[in-house]
Amino acid sequence: MEQISSRTKWLLTGLALVITLFHLVPFYILITTSLKKVGDFTSKWAFPTTFDTENFALAWEQANLGNAFINTAIITICAAVLLIFFGSMAAYALARRTTKLNKYVYMLFVGVMVIPPLTALVPLYRLVVDVGLMNTHLVAILNNVAAFMPLTIFLYAGFIRSTIPKELEEAARIDGASTLGVFFRIVFPLLKPITATVLIISSVYIWNDYQFAIFFLQDSSVQTLTVALAGFFGQNSSQLNLVAAAALMASLPMVIVFLFLQRFFIEGLAAGSVKG
What is the CATH number of domain 64-272? Predict the structure, then answer.
């Protein structure tokens, strides 16, 4: 029995290693391409013998990545903060107050998750034009908050139900704490794993959003990284070294965020989806 268990362990380890390497291949090609000189047509698998770091400076300037980074960071940070703040409070109320109305509201949020966001594009576009929010950070922030709020509530509510004991809250209420006091002093600090999960999932998608940004952020002054990179690629399709350098710089912030929060990610995602 131990031999079978050991073989299974080695098999799963090998499979995990193969999957990891498979996902690392695009990053390897991206890095090697970004470091090659202009006119270097050697195999994409070959690591460059000399590094041309000037690609990054040229890509940063020509693609206007500085402005795009600022716009994307403003939208991502503001949307993530609003999602965590309001999503956690709404989920706490829905998880702890199990009234018939709250059950219907929770089911409504879960049901909205299966609706493709692009189905609302036409009426949303008309609304944005009518209220004068085109080419503003606010429209991107509100749109992303609305798009990810159902998933945020679903994950927070499941985590609260399955992980946080009610006895902690009851003890705090006996000591005279208000509902907001119980939430912010007792419950919210215990939501660190699921908060990291929500932060990673929402931030990655918002950072990489293209389908809505291309419609609502058309002015160059408010363009996000994805829109700026799309235009840069169209203008430099024959200079893949510059395009690769720009894409690599655009992806680094989310890679860093994930590396810092990865130890909470799996724990929060698993616990947050245990109960509906």
Answer: 1.10.3720.10
